[in-house]
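Bug: C-alpha cell stream looks shifted between consecutive jobs. Job 1:
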Amino acid sequence: MTRCLVLIRGHEPLQEGWRKRSFRPAGPLLNESIQVGGVRFDESYHPVRVLRRIGAGNDPPVASGFRYGGVGPVDTYALRADFADQDAIARLRRDRGAEIVGVFADPAVSPFPSAYCGAAPIGATRDVARRLGVPALRRAGLTGAGVSVAVVDTGIDGSRIPVAGGWAPTPGYVPGSSAPDHGTMVAYDVRIAAPDARILDYALLKSQAGTWAAFLSDGIAAFADLVERVNAAPGRWVVNNSWGLFDRASDAPIGSPENYSANPDHPFNQITGALVAAGADVFFAAGNCGADCPDPRCGKGDTGPGASIHGANSHPDVFTVGAVTVTDRRLGYSSQGPGALHSRKPDLAGFSHFAGSGIYPADGGTSAASPVAAGVAAALRQRFATDRLAPAQLKGLLQRTARDLGGDGWDYDLGYGVIDAAAAVKALGVKPRARKRPKATA
C-alpha cells in the first residue's frame, strides 16, 4: 500500500467536513462519486481546505508554480488515501479526472535537532542575545507583545513556556501538555528576542520512544488551521518550522506529478504560500544535511550544495534559515543551497549550538537557528503590523540588514548573512523608548 494525498475540487460535503473537522460528511460523496478500486480513503483524516491559485475555470495550467497574475484562489480539499499500487493512482486520475486536481506524495517529516560537528555548546543565551542585537530591541521597547508565534513542532511543556492555545493532528491534545523536548527548546529560542510573544503550541510531530515523525498531510492540516486564524485576526503572526524532509527516498521522484520536494504544485507548497499571503512571516530551518557533517538521517544524495534544502523549506516566500555559532562560524551540518523550489536559499543565518533551554546540552541544529531568527521578526512585528510592513517587505529588510560574514554578498551557505536585530531597528528608524521621569517630590 502507498499513502498519498488526494486533492479534490470543492463540494459542499467536503466544505462541511472541513468546517466540522470530521471525515463523516465527506464519506458518502467519496464512496459514490470519487472512490475507485484499489483506493481507500483514510477516515481518521478530515478534509482540509487548500486554497490554490490554479487558473480560470478550475483547470490547472501545465506549470502553475507560485505566480498566477490576476487569477484568484480556488477552493480544493486534501484527503489522505492508501493506494494498492500505481495502477490504482492511474485509475483514480483517469476515471475521476473531473473531480481530482492531483495525487501527491505524503512523505514523513522530522525535526532538525543536531549535536554533530562536536557536541559541546559554544556560548550561552546571553551571548546569543548580545550578538543578535537584543539590547537594541529592548531600548526600543520591542519584546513581541501582542504578536502570535505558532511553534509547529513536537509540542511544548507549558510549565516551562507559557502557551496560549494550539493545535494537534489528533483531537484531545491539551496545548502545553507535552514533555520537555524539541518543541520546548524551539519555543525557548523564540523568546530570546521576543519574551512577551504569545506562543501557540502546534504539536505536529509526536514523540514516541525518543523519536518524532509526522506525515506532510498533517502539516497541511496545521497550516490550513493557521490560515484561518491569521485571516480572522490579521497583522502580527510568525510561524516557525524547525522540521523537514531528511531523505527523499520517501518522496516521489523529481519530475513526477506526485513529487513534493521540487514541485510547486504540491498541496503543502501551495498552502505555505497561502499562509504567507494571509499575512504570516513563515520561517523554516534550512536543514541539517550540510556537506561537512550531515545528520545520519540524511538520505543518500541528499547532502551538501544543491541537494539538501527541499520542499517548503526552500519556498521562495518563506525565511529559510541556516546556522552559525556565536563566534560567527558556519555550523557544518547547516544545509546548503541552491534550494529545490527557489535557488537563492538559504535567506539568512541564525545562532545555534549554544547553552540555552537546558533541554539538551546545546540548543543545536538549524532547529535552534530558525526560532532565534523568528523571534527577531516577532519583536519587530510588535511595532510594524502587516498593514505597515508586508511579509515580503520584512523579509527584504532582514536580508538587507544581515551581517555578511564572507564579505562577498549573498551565498549558498548563509544567504545574506547573520540576522541583525540592531541593524533592522536602525533601518526602520525606531527611536529608543523614552524613560519615564520620576515624579517630583515636594
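Job 2, same session, no restart:
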Amino acid sequence: MGRLLGATVPAGHGSETLVLGIETSCDETAAAVVARASDGRGRILSNIVRSQWEQHRAFGGVVPEIAARAHVECLDAIIAEALSEAGIGLEDIDAVAATAGPGLIGGLMVGLTTAKAIALARQIPLVAVNHLEAHALTVGLTDGLAPPYLLLLVSGGHTQIQLVRGIGRYERLSTTIDDALGEAFDKAAKLLGLDFPGGPAVEKAAARGDASRFVLPRPMLGRMEPHFSFAGLKTALRHQVAARAPLRSQDIADLCAAFEVAVTETVIDRVRRVLQALRERGEAPRCLVVAGGVAANARLKTGLGGMAAAEGLRLIAPPPALCTDNGAMIAWAGAQRLALGLTDTLDVAARARWPLDGGAVPAIGSGRAGAKA
C-alpha cells in the first residue's frame, strides 16, 4: 500500500494519535473518533451509529440502493456529531479511516469517497480498512489484547475461524460451505414471521421458549473437516414451520430456542475441531476471541465461555455495541495500520469482496465460501 501523497504519519496530540473512522459497508451509517497512545493503548472519544432498520424492514432484508442513498443523506451529519461528541474539530484529526470492503459497493463508495475528500482537504493520511480486520482487531481497543489469538468471526455474510498472528497476518482455519451464521439467523426470523434484523429477533423470542420441544440438526457435528454448514438447519426449520402452520406464539418461541441451541452446539463443536487440529501441529492459542454481529448473542457467548474454560482458553468478546458494525472499530483498525506506516493513496478502490487471507484454499461446498470468505 502507498502513502497519501504529501502526508506523513503524524506525531499526534501529545502522545496520542486521533483517527476518524467511517463505516458504511451495509445498513449502518457510523463515524467515530479513537485515540491511540504511543504505547498502543486505545480509547473511544465518540462512536455514533445510525441504523437503517426501519427503511429496510418492509423488504425483509437490506436493499443496496436504499442503503447507499441513506448513507449519502446522513453521513456528513454523523461525522459532525462524532467530532462534536469527541470535543474536537476536523482540524484536530491526524488521519481518516474508512471501510473499503467487503460490503455493498454503493455504500462503501459513499464512505470511502468522503474519507478521501477529508484526507485531501486536510492533507492527512488515509487508511482503507478491511471490515473483517476491523472486527478482528476490536479486542485490542476494548481489552488491550495483542495477537496471536484464535478468532471466531461471525459477521454478516462471513463465518470463519482465523488464527490472528498480527495486523495484516491471518490464517483461515475454517469457513462456511453455504450460509453464514448471520444469514441463517435472518432466514430463520423470516420463516417465523419475526422482525428484521433476524439475530436480535430470534434471540428475544428464544428467551421465552422451550428448546427441548423441537429437535433440529447439528450440521457437520463430529466431522473431521473443521468447516461450518447452516443450510440444512435452515431447511429443517422450514419443514417444522410448514408442518405446524399457522404457528402460535409459543411455537415460534420454542423453535427459536431450539434453533439457538442447535447453532451453539454446532459452533462449539467446530471450534473444538479447530483447536484439536492446531494442537496436532504444535500450536496452542491461549485466547479465543468471538467478534462480529452474531457475537452479541448471549446463548452463543455463554456456550463458548463454557467450552473455552474446559479447553483452558480465555474467551474475549467485545461489548455488544462494538460487535455490530460501528465506526470505532474502523478508526481503531486505521490507527493500528497507521502506526505501522500502512496508509493508502487517493486512488484506492472500494471492494465488494475482500478476504482477510486471499491465499486461503476455498472450502468444498456451494462455492460461496471461497468467494465471500
